[in-house]
């Protein structure tokens, strides 16, 4: 279950808002006819991609099944980029994913996790952070379900 929850969380709550790339050659944008010149910095909106209903049906709904073995093949290439892609993708993506999956598995095997009365919903995001972050944290309640 963690193998579908983590990617859906990264889609819905993408840590970085955008990717930055530099255009390597002049490019004619076919719809508008705009020329993007070589050397121009281009920003790719990850939030825009990950929340676009053209690529992810009901994008505001948390649906881990989008990333099940049978469904993930239908995701349009280059529309899910939590770690970027190509030669400039995040070098630590595999380690990061494996670490998060191991930690979550360990926590969920021993604790019942729930939100507390003071947990804001919907979450309020900080406008003072370069990464997506809750402005007041996310208070959670942990109840041990397995004896130590």
Automatic annotation (TrEMBL):
<keyword id="KW-0560">Oxidoreductase</keyword>
<dbReference type="GO" id="GO:0005789">
    <property type="term" value="C:endoplasmic reticulum membrane"/>
</dbReference>
<protein>
    <recommendedName>
        <fullName>Cytochrome P450</fullName>
    </recommendedName>
</protein>
<dbReference type="InterPro" id="IPR002403">
    <property type="entry name" value="Cyt_P450_E_grp-IV"/>
</dbReference>
<dbReference type="GO" id="GO:0020037">
    <property type="term" value="F:heme binding"/>
</dbReference>
<comment type="similarity">
    <text>Belongs to the cytochrome P450 family.</text>
</comment>
<comment type="function">
    <text>May be involved in the metabolism of insect hormones and in the breakdown of synthetic insecticides.</text>
</comment>
<keyword id="KW-0479">Metal-binding</keyword>
<dbReference type="GO" id="GO:0004497">
    <property type="term" value="F:monooxygenase activity"/>
</dbReference>
<keyword id="KW-0256">Endoplasmic reticulum</keyword>
<keyword id="KW-0349">Heme</keyword>
<dbReference type="Pfam" id="PF00067">
    <property type="entry name" value="p450"/>
</dbReference>
<keyword id="KW-0492">Microsome</keyword>
<keyword id="KW-0408">Iron</keyword>
<keyword id="KW-0503">Monooxygenase</keyword>
<dbReference type="InterPro" id="IPR050476">
    <property type="entry name" value="Insect_CytP450_Detox"/>
</dbReference>
<dbReference type="GO" id="GO:0005506">
    <property type="term" value="F:iron ion binding"/>
</dbReference>
<dbReference type="InterPro" id="IPR001128">
    <property type="entry name" value="Cyt_P450"/>
</dbReference>
<dbReference type="InterPro" id="IPR036396">
    <property type="entry name" value="Cyt_P450_sf"/>
</dbReference>
<keyword id="KW-0472">Membrane</keyword>
<feature type="binding site" description="axial binding residue">
    <location>
        <position position="90"/>
    </location>
    <ligand>
        <name>heme</name>
    </ligand>
</feature>
<dbReference type="InterPro" id="IPR017972">
    <property type="entry name" value="Cyt_P450_CS"/>
</dbReference>
<dbReference type="GO" id="GO:0016705">
    <property type="term" value="F:oxidoreductase activity, acting on paired donors, with incorporation or reduction of molecular oxygen"/>
</dbReference>
């Amino acid at each position: 279950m963690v193998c579908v929850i983590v990617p859906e969380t990264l889609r819905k709550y993408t840590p970085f808002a955008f990717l930055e790339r530099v255009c390597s050659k002049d490019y004619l944008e076919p719809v508008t006819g705009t020329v993007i010149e070589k050397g121009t910095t281009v920003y790719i909106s990850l939030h825009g991609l990950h929340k676009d209903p053209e690529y992810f049906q009901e994008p505001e709904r948390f649906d881990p099944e989008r990333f099940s073995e049978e469904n993930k093949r239908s995701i349009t290439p280059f529309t899910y980029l939590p770690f970027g892609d190509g030669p400039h993708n995040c070098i630590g993506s595999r380690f990061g994913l494996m670490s998060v999956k191991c930690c979550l598995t360990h926590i969920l095997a021993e604790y019942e996790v729930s939100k507390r009365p003071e947990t804001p919903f919907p979450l309020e995001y900080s406008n003072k952070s370069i990464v997506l972050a809750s402005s007041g944290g996310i208070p959670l309640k942990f109840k041990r379900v397995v004896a130590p």
